[in-house]
Amino acid sequence: MGELFLSFLSKLIALFSFILLFQSCWLQMVTTESSAGEILTDLSCNKHTCLPADEAKALKTLVSKLRYQWNQESPTSDVTCFSPKFNCSCTTNVCHVTNITLSSSRLAGFIDGKALSKLQYLEILDLSDNQIHGVIPPTLNNLPKLQKIWLSSNQISGTIPSNLSNLSGLQVLDLSDNQISGIIPPALNNLSSLESMDLSINLLTGEIPAELGNLSKLEDLVLHENLLEGTLTPALAKLENLSILTVASNYLTGKLPNDVVDGNNFFGQIPKYITKWKQLQQLSLLGNEFENPPLGFFNMPELRYLAVSDVSITGSSFEMPELIHLTNIEYLIIRNCSITGAIPESIGNCSELTYLDLSFNKLTGGIPKSMENLKLDYLILTSNMLSGNVNLSWIKKMELA
Predict the structure, then answer these.
(1) Residue from 274, 277, 270, 225 nearest 252 by CA
(2) Cβ(323)–Cβ(352) under 8 Å?
(3) In sequence order, what are the residues at sequence separation of 6 or more whose Cβ sits closer than 8 angstroms to the Cβ of residue 230?
(4) CA distance 45 to 42
(5) How far is CA 348 from the centre of its chain?
(6) How many CB atoms lie within 10 A of CB 169?
(7) pLDDT tens digits, residue range 237-273?
(8) Which of 47, 203, 266, 338 has the fewest beta carbons closer than 10 A?
(9) Is the pLDDT of residue 50 over 50?
């Protein structure tokens, strides 16, 4: 009897030990996130999952030099691995910083390049809409996993480091609305994964590098409001995935191989290869001196914004084309382009159209009845030769000129 009791007691102890072990493991799993969150109060990795000491120290230095305003009641509560501003990925017993999102956080310091370079697992860096000064640290190049950089709307000066070209996984580079000067480094053409590059509203000089035409995945190239000069290279025609391209308000001259070019000094023929950019959504050619009608643009189905003005027609006349392909168009401006003929009935197919400006042309006939199906907010037909009656009940809710 005694042996049976001892055997039972032994099995009971073993079962109890197993339950304790299981509970301990389960508690460790469920507390991984919270214990990792205390990375800046305890820089050492003991029994719980946390950041390595050097990485935690680097993060603390980085946010300190950025002059991040800590929560006064709980100074470390905002600087955790699992907060909206800082994120980590974790294995069984170690975490690494992957996301830093400090946009609109009233940062008034600078980016400590040395500290930043210690965050080797960083994928997203968003410091936009602050008052950060200083330069873009070249040590960004030492972050091999970096995918997205947002430094827009700050007071950053200096130049764009050419060694950023080594970030082969970079998808987004936004340096807009700063005080960055110098040239656009041709070496950026090595950013083989880049989908969006915004360098607008800076002090960049020189020409737009032809090498940018090698960025085969690029969808957005935004360069307006700089001091860029020279002519535009036809190499940009290779950007088959291009959706948005703006170079307005620069000092570019010569013949046009581009799309959004308002406020430059382009002249001559509008190149036909623009129509190869099948994904293009915005096309604005206002305020230049072109010589041929933009007929091909009416066959670009993804266009949502098309604005052309001041085109001089040589040779045969330019009749208003059919609009059967512009089914996504929202803004259509064809002003002072010497177009003749009638407004086509097919304009009624443009169901998304809200703004229509066909002013200062030579249009004849009346307003097509199909236009009554449109949800126009603005209709501008000034200085044409239109005739016929106007349905006042249809236009009473619009701005009409």
Answers:
(1) 225
(2) no
(3) 206, 207, 208, 252, 253, 254
(4) 8
(5) 33
(6) 15
(7) 788 788 887 777 777 665 444 334 444 445 455 556 5
(8) 47
(9) yes
The yes-or-no verdict on residue 21 having pLDDT over 50 is: no
What pLDDT does 374 receive?
86
Amino acid at site 366? G
Q: How far apart are the first and last CA of the chain?
A: 107
Query: Do residues 112 and 133 lie in contact, with contact meaning Cβ atoms separated by under 8 Å?
Result: no
**pLDDT band for position 399 (cuts 50, 70, 90):** low
- Write out pLDDT tens, residues 212-228: 989 989 988 888 889 88
| 367 closest CA partner among 351, 381, 352 | 381
Alpha helices in 198-336 (DSSP H): none
Q: In what order do the strands lie in the sheet with 339-341?
A: 318-319, 339-341, 362-365, 385-386
- Separation of alpha carbons 56 and 28, rounded Å: 21
Whether pTM exceeds 0.85: no
Neighbouring residues of 379: CB distance < 8 A, sequence distance ≥ 6:
356, 395, 398, 399, 400, 401
CB 17 within 8 A of CB 9: no
Give the pLDDT score at 194: 95
Q: What is the pLDDT of residues 81-98, one digit of tens each?
A: 667 788 888 877 788 899
Give the span between the Cα atoms of 232 and 247, in whole angstroms: 10
Cβ–Cβ contacts within 10 Å for residue 185, how many?
Answer: 18
Instruction: Find out whether 382 and 362 touch, Cβ atoms under 8 Å.
Output: no
6-23: buried (b, 16+ CB within 10 Å) or exposed (e) per residue? eeeeeeeeeeeeeeeeee
Residue type, 29: M
Give the residue from 365, 396, 397 showing the smallest Cα distance to 381: 365
* Strand boundaries in 272-397, DSSP class E: 282-285, 289-290, 305-309, 318-319, 331-335, 339-341, 355-357, 362-365, 378-380, 385-386
**Is residue 233 exposed (0-12), middle (13-18) or buried (19+ Cβ within 10 Å)?**
middle
Q: Which residue has the tokens 């009940």?
A: 393
Those residues whose C-beta lies under 8 Å from the C-beta of residue 234, and which sit 6 or more positions away, are: 257, 271, 273
Ranked by mean pLDDT, the top range of 67-71, 301-305, 321-325 is: 301-305
> What's the mean pLDDT when you consider all of the chain?
77
